[in-house]
Specification:
Layout: H1 26-30, E1 39-42, H2 49-55, E2 62-67, H3 70-81, H4 83-99, H5 101-110, H6 116-129, H7 158-170, E3 173-177, H8 180-183, E4 192-195, H9 218-234, E5 237-243, H10 246-251, E6 259-265, E7 277-284
Parallel strand pairs: 1-2, 1-4, 2-3, 4-5
Antiparallel strand pairs: 5-7, 6-7
Helix pairs in contact: 3-6, 3-7, 4-5, 4-6
The chain binds S-adenosylmethionine (SAM).
């Protein structure tokens, strides 16, 4: 009998490393996710660590995920709809990279492709090979991270890309590029919302907010707080990650009975001493 081989790994995982990624905190976050919900909203999706972990548990729910970063959202859509073409493009990047990593990396970094596959394969390639593996653009929206020091970066993770593609196609999932307020407009009682915004900086020098080129400033944290309260009134369950900063503790003081402190490692700062453990918050309304 002819055997069929399928490119599927058990659980889909983030296909890019993302600033503020939640992979390390998954076991703690999982403890706070409600058992049941009708719809799951994640409007600051990033690499999607929490979403991928929940969506592959076989829960019967609808999944509404979004992010303001259009290149990132295009990547999700491309993996869902055109994964084979994307894998081929990444294979070509990989082959060229291993011929001369330095010159090829900077050639691709300076390029500005217009086609969907070219754009997304460039984003994934740079994410896998750049310093610290973080997507970071400057104020002009340009990717400006230098080449990383990887000996053998896994530029084409076929199994994971196939697993991500399959889950995105098979489940009841909506993926959009939009601001969090628009994304949460229709959330209602019975729904669960996980919020992982750019964090309020704890010190003057910490700049955790440049994901899209636009800063998520204090007025955005206030907007988020207003949305949190409005959803709470509607009977939506909400779980919010943020920094343990005076501003956030002050804004969410009325939910102080449901604030959990957790220890986390933040790998965003390239100065290794600054990667030591710190405390962040999980704020709930249930
Ligand atoms: C902390 S990251 C999320 C990390 C994610 N949980 C993970 O595991 O990778 C925050 C995300 O919010 C997005 N973002 C920034 N401002 C936004 C806004 N106003 N509305 C929606 N998303 C926004 C950024 O593009 C970024 O992907």
């Amino acid at each position: 009998m002819k055997q069929q081989y399928r490119l599927i790994s058990s659980t889909p995982k983030p296909f890019v490393k993302w600033a503020g990624g939640k992979r390390q905190l998954l076991p703690i976050i999982a403890n706070h996710v409600p058992q049941k919900f009708e719809r799951y909203f994640e409007p600051f999706l990033g690499g999607g660590a929490v979403f991928f972990s929940l969506v592959s548990q076989g829960k019967d729910a609808k999944w509404i995920v979004s992010d303001l970063n259009s290149d990132l959202v295009l990547s999700y859509v491309t993996i869902r709809d055109r994964v084979k073409e994307l894998i081929s493009a990444l294979e070509s990047h990989s082959a060229n990279y291993f011929k001369n990593s330095n010159s090829y990396y900077y050639k691709i970094r300076e390029s500005n492709p217009k086609g969907q596959i070219e754009k997304v394969s460039r984003l994934v390639f740079l994410n896998k090979t750049c310093f610290n593996g973080l997507y970071r653009v400057n104020s002009k929206g340009k990717f400006n991270v230098p080449l990383g020091k990887y000996v053998n970066p896994n530029i084409v993770n076929r199994e994971n890309l196939a697993a991500v593609s399959e889950v995105l196609q098979s489940k009841d999932i909506s993926i959009k590029c939009q601001d969090f307020e628009a994304a949460l407009k229709n959330a209602a009682a019975g729904d669960f919302v996980y919020l992982d915004p750019p964090y309020q900086p704890v010190s003057e020098t910490a700049n955790f907010t440049s994901y899209t080129g636009d800063n998520f400033d204090y007025s955005d944290q206030e907007r988020l707080h207003a949305k949190f309260k409005a959803l709470d009134k509607k009977g939506v369950k909400i779980l919010l990650s943020n920094s343990k900063s005076d501003e956030i503790i002050g804004l969410f003081s009325e939910f102080s009975d449901n604030i959990v402190e957790i220890n986390a490692n933040r790998f965003i700062n390239s100065v290794s001493q600054k990667r030591t453990g710190h405390t962040e918050l999980l704020i709930k309304n249930y």
